[in-house]
Predict the structure.
Amino acid sequence: MTNTDPVAVLGAGVMGTGIATLALGHGLPVVLVDVDDAVLERALAQVARQLKLGRLMGGLPRESADGRLITTTDLSAIVGARAVVESVTEKPGLKKEVLAAATAVIRPGTPVVTNTSAIPVDELAEAAARPDEFLGAHFMNPPYLIKTIEVVRGPRTSDVALAAVLELLGEVGQQPVVVGDGPGFVVNRILQRVINEAARIVQEGIATPEAVDALFTGCLGHRTGPLGTADLIGLDNVVDSLHVLLDRTGDEGYRPCDLLVTKVKAGEHGRKTGKGFYDHGGVL
């Protein structure tokens, strides 16, 4: 494999398109795979918009030509990939199914990265054909604007695979922080608990979402408060991550509060649906 081989991204949702944008904006070719043609069609428009936004806000190099983007429902298109980034829905069974299929067709020596928010890397590595070539890279949303990335080394991850992924991340301007494996890793083990408690405070009528976030931004210096962050992540993803953490730690503090569950059932998922804890003025 060479640096001219494409980066394969599996899943054309919010994070998948963001990761594709990051690579394309740094001039790397990308193969974006999804099972739904309609999702891929929307992804083309989203990537184009995000490339413009990323350059406007200084997250992407303005002088770099965009890499070539191929969208497809055919998994065999990833055969010659330089690296594979899995970014499908935060469901362990689905992720394992996708990883098993993907690692069966790619060349040995191709590093495979999961963008899971909370599922332990070694748990997912069970589905990979070569667990030593598997690790986690928890991109923050949007990845073309947030430079720091949590890289999760599983107990079976090899030095070679880790080095290859760190090199790739350096090429796209990311600043990796390598951590060990475990439910939620570092960021989400802390963040999801905070979001859940913030939502519970709103549920109990103690404070509005605006008040909660104002205290976090004004008193603690956060760029956004926990509920604004939850809307950006997607409340459906928050609930999925909380269930993963609850199931794997047994800590009741991770059980999604009623308000989060109700909002997800109502389709109020945050920015991507136009409404979550805040009204975002329409679907993004």
The mean pLDDT is 96. DSSP finds ten helices and eight strands in the chain.
